[in-house]
Structures are given as C-alpha cells and as structure tokens.
Amino acid sequence: SAPSGLAASAMRRSHLPGRPATALVRSVRGLAMTWQDLEAVKARAATSMDRAEYFATARLALAEAVTEQDQELRRVVHAGMPTSSASALQALARSLPDLQRTMTDHGELMRRQCTIDKRQLALTDVIAEQEMRVSGCAASTAARASAEVAEASGELRGGAQYPAYTEVMRTCFT
C-alpha cells in the first residue's frame, strides 16, 4: 500500500523526483507517491529539525558570549586603563575561541547522540499511528516496514552537517 493520512498530506507539500516505476503508488491530487518518497521527506524533516536545534544552541552561546564581552568591556572602560582600547580588543578576541569550541562541541555531541536518527524514529511513530487511525493495521505495518527498509539501505543517511562558526558569521554578515 502507499502512504495515506498524515504521510500523504506531508508528501503533497513536497515534490520528490525519481520515483521507481515498480513501486506501489497512490495518486493524491495528481501526485504519485511511494513509501520511498515518504522516507525522503522524513529524512529532510529530521535534518531540518536537527539544524534548527543546532542553530538555537549556537544563538544561546552567542548571546552568552556577547554578555561576557559586554561585562569585560565595561570593566576595562571603568578601570580607566591607559591602554583600554588594546585591552578591549584582547577581551573580544578571548571569547571567540570559546564560542567556536562551543559550536563545534555541540555539533559533535548531536552527532554522537544520533539526534537525526532519533527524530526519524519519532516521525515514523507519528506516521504509523496516523496510518493505523486512518487506514488500519496493514498501513501502519507498511509505514514501519518502509522505515526499516530505508534505515537498512542507508540511502537516506547523509550524516549531520553542522556549519562552523566562521560559516555562520560569513552567512550572517555577507
């Protein structure tokens, strides 16, 4: 069987090329869909959710760094040091490696914890429950089987790609 319910509505919003001619397909509003299409949509959704978490963490780290820089600059200015501009630049320069390390460490932590895989499993659970409710046990079983086949084949695993600090800053300021 082909996806129905939540899976079908998600796939109606996404066009995915390269459907195999032998796949079981179902036409919903003129869009031919397969379980393979659904797995690709799930992989993209999980990757997007993972990157959103990464950027939220990077934003928090940046906010902390800016607060620390602000405090350090205020201390330097209030101290009335004759070399306050040099001290201010040193204070700013010291926080950059910490921020870079924080972003790198969090990306590595997310890779080690396989957060994308966990998100795909959660999406599979939601889709299987929806298929059970809308189309019955066979559709729910097909949703889980599709996820197992996609996982076993490794086709949808691109690995987590988290941008480095320099890439984020270049994107923000260019």
In brief, what are we looking at here?
With 174 residues, the protein is mostly helical. It has one domain.
Notes on the structure:
- With 174 residues, the protein is mostly helical.
- Helices cover 74% and strands 3% of the residues.
- It has a two-stranded antiparallel ribbon with strand order 1-2.
- A hairpin with a 2-residue loop joins strand 1 and strand 2.
- The protein is rod-shaped and about 75 Å long.
- Mean pLDDT is 77; it is low at 10-28.
Runs in which pLDDT lies below 50 for 5 or more consecutive residues are 10-28
* Beta-strand content bin: under 5%
Secondary structure: helix percent: over 70%
Shape: rod-shaped
Distance between the termini: 48 Å
Q: How big is the Rg?
A: 23 Å
Alpha-beta classification: mainly alpha
Number of strands: 2
Strand order of the largest sheet: 1-2
- Main sheet: strands, sense, barrel: 2 strands, antiparallel
N-to-C series of helices and strands: HEEHHHHH
Q: How is the quaternary structure best described? A: single chain
Number of separate structural domains = 1
Rounded average pLDDT: 77
Number of helices: 6
Structure characteristics:
174 residues; mainly alpha; two-stranded antiparallel ribbon
Describe how the helices and strands are arranged:
Layout: H1 5-12, E1 26-28, E2 31-33, H2 35-79, H3 84-112, H4 115-135, H5 137-153, H6 165-173
Antiparallel strand pairs: 1-2
Helix pairs in contact: 2-3, 2-4, 4-5
